[in-house]
Specification:
Length: 125
C-alpha cells in the first residue's frame, strides 16, 4: 500500500505568516503618515525659498503659510535652518518622529533634508 504525502502549508505555518504580515502592515500604516509629512516639508522648504528670496523672515513666513495649507505639524518656520552660501540662501531642516509601538517600545524616525547641493547626502534615516 502506498502512502500519499500531502504538500502545502500547515495551519500553524499559515497563522505565522499572517501574523508577520499583520505586524508589517501595522508598521507601514504608522510610518506612512510621517513619511508623507516629511515629503510635504521637503516641498514646503523649496516653495518657501522661492517665495522668500534671500530674506530669512520672509522664508520663515512663507514656510508657515505653506505648512498651514499642507497640514504640517512636525516643524514650524522657526525650526528651519537658513544659511547663506555666497549669493544664495539654503534652507534645511532636521527633526525626529517617535512612534509608540507596544508598551515601552517605540520607533524613532529621523528626518532631514536641505535645498542645497548636498541634498543627495541628506536622506531620511
Amino acid at each position: 500500500m502506498r502512502t500519499h504525502r500531502q504538500n502545502g502549508v500547515s495551519l500553524t505555518g499559515l497563522i505565522l505568516v499572517l501574523a508577520v504580515l499583520g505586524v508589517v502592515a501595522v508598521l507601514a500604516l504608522k510610518i506612512l503618515p510621517t513619511y508623507t509629512e516629511y515629503r510635504a516639508i521637503k516641498n514646503a522648504i523649496v516653495t518657501a525659498k522661492a517665495a522668500g528670496g534671500n530674506s530669512v523672515p520672509e522664508i520663515r513666513k512663507a514656510f508657515d503659510a505653506n505648512a498651514t495649507v499642507a497640514y504640517i505639524t512636525a516643524i514650524s518656520g522657526s525650526d528651519l535652518i537658513i544659511e547663506r552660501e555666497g549669493d544664495s540662501v539654503e534652507v534645511s531642516f532636521a527633526y525626529e518622529k517617535k512612534i509608540p509601538l507596544v508598551g515601552p517600545a517605540s520607533l524613532l524616525l529621523e528626518y532631514q533634508d536641505t535645498t542645497g547641493t548636498s541634498a543627495a547626502a541628506a536622506k531620511p534615516h
